[in-house]
Amino acid sequence: MDKIQKQIVNTLKEKSAIKQRVYDYTVSAFGILKEELKNTVETINNELKENDKRVLLEYKDRGYFEAEIKVAGDVIVFHMHTNIFEFENSHNIWKTTYIQKDRLNSYCGVINVYNFLSDSFKYNRLDDLGYLIGRLFINKDEFFFVEGKHQMAFLQNDFGNIKIDRNHIKNVIDSAIQYSLEFDLLVPPYKYVEQVTVAQINDTINKSKVKTGKRLGFQFYSKDEEIK
Predict the structure, then answer these.
(1) How many independent structural domains does the chain possess?
(2) What is the 3-state secondary structure (H, E, C) of the chain?
(3) Is residue 165 part of a domain?
(4) Is the pLDDT of residue 209 over 60?
(5) Which of 165, 197, 207, 221 is the most exposed place for a label (fewest CB within 10 A)?
(6) Residue range of the domain that includes 37
(7) Confidence of residue 54 (pLDDT cuts 50, 70, 90)
(8) Residue at 228 is within a domain
């Protein structure tokens, strides 16, 4: 075996094996997340059963790597990516002692949390927009942290000290629901909708396909602008 082949073997033994372990932990966490989504829907619906049935939550398993809950006029989609990631050089994670001690600690699986309008799915409005409201990262030691908007940003950012468990996953779900309910749909600025083509209005009439999303018209915001 030559030098390059030895390097290949060492990489497979170290990095690739670690990535597989990260994947397994992320799959396990996503399985627990699905269970907690169902539990959350059942718990909340028990409190709402005497109210308008249209506000009841709904859970849907969309496959091995995806699940969703419908909350009033919102759909929150939880999606586990099948790949393992490392962070860009500018990410704050590189400033942590935990990562500086061992670069392999930086490899993470990710579960993305998206917020859509439920009508986008109901009326098959394929051009409607959704928002990434949070990301849950899990590494080879089952340590985790959360990146997200507002409530979700404060869940856990002390990477390297706390392991993911059922209670932390439940907090992610609750925070995603709370944020989505508080994240209201706004009318777009008049100047962006004052003109419409015949094709667009016909499409709207026939298929109800006006491009819509939370903060209607938010596609005109800078991607770096804070949503408040």
Answers:
(1) 1
(2) CCHHHHHHHHHHHHHHHHHHHHHHHHHHHHHHHHHHHHHHHHHHHHHHCCCCHHHCCEEEECCCCEEEEEECCEEEEEEECCCCECCCCCCHHHHCHHHHHCHHHHCEEEEEEEEEEHHHHHCCCCCCCCEEEEEEEEECCCEEEEEECHHHHHCCCCCCCCECCHHHHHHHHHHHHHHHHHCCCCCCCHHHHCCCCHHHHHHHHHHCCCCCCCCCCHHHCCCCCCCC
(3) yes
(4) no
(5) 197
(6) 3-220
(7) confident
(8) no
